[in-house]
Specification:
By secondary structure, this protein is of the alpha/beta class. It folds into two domains: 33-233, 3-Layer(aba) Sandwich (Rossmann fold), CATH 3.40.50; 247-358, 3-Layer(aba) Sandwich (Rossmann fold), CATH 3.40.50. Helix content is 30%, strand content 18%. It has helices at 5-27, 63-68, 94-108, 125-135, 158-169, 259-266, 287-295, 319-322, 332-342, 349-358; strands at 33-40, 78-87, 115-119, 142-145, 180-183, 186-189, 194-195, 204-205, 213-216, 219-222, 247-251, 271-276, 299-304, 325-326. The chain starts with a helix and ends with a helix. The strands form three sheets. The chain has an eight-stranded mixed beta sheet with strand order 2-1-3-4-5-6-9-10. The protein binds D-glutamic acid. D-glutamic acid binds next to loops.
């Protein structure tokens, strides 16, 4: 049961009034063709009661049910759905990303697809969005959307988020801006957005660089453009890749040693992102392990656990001398994605530093 019976009746009343208004406007022009690729998450989740907003089961509702739960979609786009995966997004992996990216590029190459919406768990939504931002080969809109409350919850945010995402994906104004995230009436770029709260509906934020625009009554309003290269302007191509290089993240904290770094290298990491304290500082007990890893050919990126700000090259460490890469202002989890794709092209750290200064 997607909605509580009483709420369904109320929805029907408001929905029909809405459809009447929206219908007139939408019939004025041709509706865009928007494909929804469903991957799971809370937006497809169900709870035991209408007040269950934690402790629910993610990834249980299929894409057709998600579409049917929002009849207003039919008035703003020709929507079709595809269940690509049905997983909680903490389980998203490289193989999922490669499959999803290839399907997105295949669909966007079709003239009868104007935009794509990807429904996704919020835990790793920012990572999938950034990965696609670097490998989608189209200017057409690709919009990731999730929800923070399951479909069965009081004031579930999934339906309105999905409605907004479909409107955004079908709107030519969203083209050429890279992969976007539409949640909570806000539009974010894939590069700058992050999940900033464990449970609240306003969790997706770009704390210092800000959102790129709003969605209000189904219409997008943009106020800035992305400045880093994305989609058609990137050098990365996953179309012929069956796997991605193993890249891991080692987190720094007071009293940290070298165990994690050594273990990740021993397990076969080809690249390592160090989520340093402050401006990417290297603790004395960890630095020798990173130097040894570099000597074995592992590419090291200095990032920061802080969350905002630039990790400056040759700032807290002599990257020139250590032959490390400075991770700019990317979070460690996004630096991992860029390093993974960089390693599909080169192991040259000067080239990889250029990539971190470019994307
Ligand atoms: N298991 C989490 C996920 O699939 C639920 C969080 C959510 O989707 O909002 O990301």
């Amino acid at each position: 049961m997607l909605f509580h019976p009483t709420r369904r009746a109320t929805l029907a009343l408001f929905g029909s009034l809405f459809l009447l208004a929206g219908g007139v406007q939408a019939q004025a022009g041709k509706l865009p063709n928007v494909r929804i690729l469903a991957t799971g998450g809370t937006i497809a989740g169900t709870g035991a009661t209408s007040t269950t907003t934690v402790g629910y089961t993610a990834a249980t509702v299929g894409v057709q049910a998600l579409i049917q739960a929002v009849p207003e979609l039919a008035k703003v786009a020709n929507v079709t759905g595809e269940q690509v995966f049905q997983i909680a997004s903490e389980n998203m992996g490289n193989e999922h990303w490669l499959q999803l990216a290839k399907r997105v590029n295949q669909l966007l190459a079709q003239p009868d697809v104007d935009g794509i919406v990807i429904t996704h768990g919020t835990d790793t939504l920012e990572e999938t969005a950034y990965f696609l931002n670097l490998v989608v080969k189209s200017r057409k809109p690709v919009v990731l959307v999730g929800s923070m409350r399951p479909s069965t919850a009081l004031s579930a945010d999934g339906p309105i988020n999905l409605y907004n995402a479909v409107q955004l994906a079908g709107n030519p104004a969203a083209a050429g801006k890279g992969v976007l995230v539409a949640m909570n009436d806000q539009i974010h770029t894939a590069r700058d957005v992050t999940k900033a709260n464990t449970t609240t509906a306003d969790t997706f934020r770009a704390a210092e660089l800000g959102m790129i625009g709003y969605i209000q009554s189904g219409k997008p309003y943009f106020y800035r453009e992305p400045t880093r290269k994305h989609t058609v302007d990137t050098e990365f191509d996953v179309s012929k890749l069956a796997s991605l290089p193993q890249v891991d993240v080692a987190y720094a904290y007071a009293n940290v040693g070298a165990v994690a770094v050594n273990a990740l290298v021993a397990a076969g990491a080809k690249g390592l992102v160090h989520a340093g304290v402050g401006n990417g500082s290297l603790p004395a007990n960890t630095k020798p392990a990173l130097v040894a890893a570099r000597a074995k050919g592992v590419v090291i990126v200095r990032s920061s656990r802080v969350g905002q700000g630039i990790v400056a090259r040759n700032g807290e460490a002599n990257d020139d001398q250590l032959d490390f890469v400075a991770g700019d202002n990317l979070s460690p989890q996004k630096a991992r994605i860029l390093l993974m794709l960089a390693l599909t092209k080169t192991g040259d750290t000067r080239e990889i530093q250029r990539m971190f200064n470019t994307y």
